[in-house]
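Question (not urgent): is this output format expected?
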Amino acid sequence: MIAWPAAPYVGWARTRPAARYDLAASDLLPVTAHDWPALIGEDGDESHADARGADAVETALIAAIASHCGVATDHVVTAVGSSGANFLALAALVRPGDAVLVEDPGHAPLADAARRFGAEVIALRRRPERGFGIEPDAIAASVTARTRLVVLSRPHNPTGSLIDRPTLEAIAEIAERSRIHVLIDEVYLDTLDGGSQAPAALVSDRFISTASLTKAFGLVGVRCGWALAAPGIAARMRAAGAVMAPVPEPSRRLALRALADLSLLAGRARRIIRGNRIHVQRAFAGRDDLAWEPPAAGTVTFPRLLRVADVDAFVDRLRIEHHTAVVPGRFFGHPQHVRVAFGMATEELARGLEALTTALDAAAHLETVRL
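Got this back:
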């Protein structure tokens, strides 16, 4: 296997100093045995000690994912997390010299992975004045004879903006007409308040949806993800994955158990996200030093700092002086923004938001003194 260096964001995320109040990590608060008793068996061992063999477990896991997502089993490809599923889609579809349209702002590792397959990455702007929504006309205008793939997220990382059904259908028409595919990372889709929307892959065979149990359900250590794709593309993804490490067998067994108990895990997740989103809204409401859109879904938001001259320096001060971490917006191509996560324990979030707003007040005061 090729040993590629870590993408800039991944390298930063893996090596950044720990913070007391971590508003940079976008995972949901990890599940405990109190939340989900099936996590620990009656004898104190992990409860995924299953008598079935590995092949039978994989078959059952694919069937459970297919049932959850509303597709046939030949549309499902398992992977090590949603990142692994995205990688397999790129490996199956992208060749050197291809052009790949990637949303901007967007999750940097997706663009970095496309470049590592030899593609030219073309930024597809999500404009702040449009609520960071996707504009099908912009996709149509950017497609050329070299375009192979469009890469989006739904809900959007880092803003939480959602692509609605009419927009998906318009994008599907463009993809069919242009004979291209659309990779849609839907790792946050199950965080939608009031219930999940159907995966984009159900709208068109030109769409590949990816997701996992990590971000939306708090099963951080499971690392079980999947892709939904038309059977032909799914087969190519499985072939690409044949040279990679599969989902570890203990993860598959635990993922299978989690899919059986998904309503319980989803209810817990939505309670955490719903309450924490209110905390963020209260912290940011009425501030004239921020420009932001309340997220429709997901566990992150992406405010623009209007009175901070050097956001990277502000992020460093926030961590050192206030023990709080956020992600610098430069990793998403927007250096005047920060990404703020809110999937953690409510007390940690509240203290982190208090630290963030205190630091913003200090920054605004400093700018006033300078003027």
